[in-house]
Amino acid sequence: MEFEPFFAKAAARTLVCMILTTFTEGACPKIVFIERRSSSTISCVTQDKIIAEAFWYRGSISHTIPILRLENGNPGGTEYGKGQYVVDSKGAMTIHNASVVHEADYFFVAFFEDDTFHKSNVTVVITVLPDPPCPQVTNCFSCEECHLNVSGNGTVTCSMLGVRPKMNINWITEGEPGTDITLHQRNVKNNSNGYTWDVSIGLSYGTYTCGQRFVLQCIAHDDHKLLKYSTPVYIETENCNDGGALGNKQSVLISTIVVMAILIVILVISAICYKARRKDQRSLETTVNPEEQPLTSSKSAYLDTAAQRTADYLKGAYEPQCSVHVLPWEDPIPITAVNIDYELTFKNAQETNINSSCHEILRNISLNNLHRVMITADRGNGKTYFMKQIIHQWSQEKVNSFILIYIDADDISQNMDIMSMILKMLPTSHNLTKEVIHQVLNSNEVLVLIDGLDELTVGDGEKSSTAESEKQRKSDTESTDNISRFNARQTIKEILENNLNEEDNNVHVWITSRGLQDTRYEFKLPYVKINLPEFSEQQMKSYIKKTCSYYINFKELTEGKQGSTENTPHQKDKAKANSEEVIRMVQKIVNENNVLRDFKNNFFLLSLLVHIIAAKLTITPEYLHNLIVENMASLIATIIEALLLRYSRKNTKLSKEVIDKIKITLEEVAFRMTVPDETIQVRFPKDRNNIIRIAEAVGILEEKEQDNVIDVYFSHTRIEEYFAAKYISKLDKVKYQSIKKTIEKSHGGVWKLILCLEGLE
Predict the structure, then answer these.
(1) This prediction's pTM
(2) What is the pLDDT, as a whole number, of residue 694?
(3) pLDDT at 488
(4) Can you tell me the distance from the alpha carbon of 221 to that of 134, in angstroms, rounded to the nearest whole number?
(5) Which residues contact 234 (CB under 8 A, 6 or more apart)?
């Protein structure tokens, strides 16, 4: 069996590690904190020795197989190649897209060429930092310090919400004589996602001394005592009267007696009024059915106010969604600057053909009976852009006719519920109770947007506790007088499965999906399916015009602030002429070059291309200094660079899949540019010309033979050198010679291919 030599070798290495004592320890950090969904590289110091072999173990060395290994420069291991663990040429381990499943003790073993070896271990702790990053104190909104003016006594609570690892939290007091401090029991709750905690502790204080100042400090730290947070609280009591402390005690006693007497009088009057009111109600019950009575005007007005307040809070949370971040080097752009309305054709629930725009659909959301909608398009064809348009249009309305709940499926799991997600979106200063939110959702139209059904995950082992979720669900239902139109404790999974009551006519669920057959989760019927159309020529022209106008206006605004532009009629005419020239150039590059035909069919690639060209021709930023917009290879290289930068920031496996797919498309475009038109075929016969043979020989193409036909695929290995030598050579002879020397020294085969393609050999 081919694996036996490896296991035998690994066993021998393990035995050496356990027996020998001449090794160095402590080269790895003892503990490494990695924020969830981020990446981190763990390097172990090897005193500049040359590593012959290196191994990473998860758990005990003697009972596990290496998850990563490096032997003679070749990486491997049980977890290598799965996208989560990577080992580099120096033996360092990188953990990608960290989740709680990566939290463990890891052991590192390295064997050097001088026959010595090294062994050490590191503990990886996955963190989720709170937002804001400090303990939150009642009625305080700053992490720096908090000032409270009080009288007599009161209670304050300190909390750390949604944090990992579990924090220890406590109060440190610096009081004065006359101050009574009582600490409450610490409360620790594991959240429904299963991997974060809410920790809180209360404190009661009492003072009989006026004009006093005392200091509290809420301290939070983890079990490792490496993560530490604190918030100081300064409490001041009211100033003293002339009677001093003793007079203050007497005044407090007198005030208490007066207040109690007033309360007794109020209670007596209230009881009399209540009896009279009940008598009147009983006389009306014989003629009026209570179920037919409408809401009182005061309650209706209250719910309207609460609904608008909820909408306003959500608008604040959705502000980032009202912009598009196309170029990773630049700030996001308001979606209004590049907004293009979609013209849609579909059938509604009554099988009636509907021709409508995005704006019209939202304006008549309940009239079209669009309760459940699946919006489909291929990857990169504008589904999220369409969602952003919906969010922006809703956010611009001063008075909203419905409540919009936006959910990015890439950031959640199927077991999360609507209520918990709404509460996370509300600011810490909100004063809406769960009961009020339930009533708001039940008395208004509700549109739930779920962006990315294909990205929805179970949660990497972070499933919520079913029993705890059911208990909370019952608690919320009881607290809302059994209101059942829309239970906000329903999970994403239940919403997708259409487990809503028949009375839920106010609930609309819209999702985006690539429409794949093998998706993990099913959006169950009945629903209306809307296929997003490809950009028309007119829409593409409009998009190019708006994008160019944005960058030109941005340039004028920047230069105006620097005092280099005068706002004269002549300057305005010149700016307009420049704008039209830039738009014309961008349209020419995009429309007249056949090799960019693939970009037109993908909104994401098209927008990236247009923004890169427009930015280069207007603001000319430093990162585009070397870009030549008339050169397709230069454009393609810049697009790949932007894609990689977006991937490194977002850092998800799905993003890498997107980039790999787009890179293949880009490379196919580049290949068309190098091979004569008559030889462009998906499959090449056996007797294809020498260009294909040379390409295969140097690794730019690879082939697979089946049924006497050779399928040829483009390889990634030499693409950068290929681009540089092929296209720069046509523009600059000095660069041509420089590239020629560089490639001759490194990859002679590539240079031979370039000479062949250029007709020089």
Answers:
(1) 0.48
(2) 41
(3) 64
(4) 11
(5) 145, 146, 147, 148, 213, 215
Pairing of strands 197-207, 187-190: antiparallel
Residue 355 has pLDDT above 60, yes or no: yes
Tell me the two tokens of residue 593: 């070059």
Of the candidates 96, 40, 14, 46, which has an alpha carbon nearest to the alpha carbon of residue 651? 96
- CATH number of the structural domain 136-237: 2.60.40.10
Ranking 94-108, 253-267, 273-287 by mean pLDDT, the lowest is: 273-287
Model confidence pLDDT, tens digit, residues 462-485: 344 344 444 444 444 444 343 344
Per-residue pLDDT tens digits for 618-651: 888 888 887 888 766 677 767 777 776 766 555 5
Asked if residue 476 lies in contact with residue 338, where contact means CB atoms within 8 angstroms, the answer is: no
Residue that has been written with the tokens 């003793």 in this structure = 246
Burial class (CB within 10 angstroms; exposed 0-12, middle 13-18, buried 19+) of 722: buried
Candidates 2.60.40.1120, 2.40.128.260, 3.10.310.30, 3.40.50.300; CATH matching 301-531 = 3.40.50.300
Helix (H) or strand (E) holding 645, with range, is helix 632-650
- 318 pLDDT band, cuts 50/70/90, is confident
Give me the DSSP letters along 435-469: HHHHHHHHSSEEEEEEE-GGG-B--TT-PPPHHHH
Give the tens place of pLDDT for each residue, 652-697: 444 555 555 555 555 554 454 444 433 333 333 344 444 444 444 4
Q: Is 321 exposed, middle or buried (0-12, 13-18, 19+ CB in 10 A)?
A: buried
Instruction: Report the distance separating Cα 80 and Cα 65, nearest Å.
Output: 12
* Distance separating alpha carbons of residues 436 and 701, to the nearest angstrom: 63
- Give the separation between CA 297 and CA 301, rounded to whole angstroms: 6
Q: Is 33:127 a contact under the CB 8 Å cutoff?
A: yes
- In angstroms, the CA 429 to CA 439 distance is 20
Distance (Å, whole) CA 642 – CA 622: 14
Binned at pLDDT 50, 70 and 90, residue 753 comes out as: very low
Nearest to 325 by CA among 388, 390, 254, 414: 388
- From the list 261, 259, 243, the residue with the least C-alpha distance to 251 is 243
Residues constituting the chain:
761
Q: Which helix (H) or strand (E) holds 586?
A: helix 569-592
Instruction: Write 147-150 long-range contacts (CB < 8 A, 24+).
Output: 147/233, 147/234, 147/236, 148/233, 148/234, 148/235, 148/236, 149/236, 149/237, 149/238, 150/205, 150/235, 150/236, 150/237, 150/238
Q: Is the peptide bond before 569 cis (omega within 30 degrees of 0)?
A: no
Task: Quote the tokens at residue 217.
Answer: 């400090």
Task: Write out the two tokens for 742.
Answer: 């560089």
Query: If 0-12 CB within 10 Å is exposed, 13-18 middle and 19+ buried, where does residue 88 land?
Result: middle
In CATH, which of 2.20.25.10, 2.60.40.10, 3.30.230.80, 2.40.50.140 is domain 4-127? 2.60.40.10
37-78 pLDDT, tens digit per residue, is 889 999 887 667 788 888 899 876 655 688 998 888 889 888
Q: How far apart are CA 286 and CA 327, in angstroms?
A: 70
pLDDT band at 87 (very low <50, low <70, confident <90, very high): very high
According to DSSP, the residues that pair with 427 across neighbouring strands are none
Q: Which two tokens stand for residue 181?
A: 């401090």
Three-class SS state of 217: strand
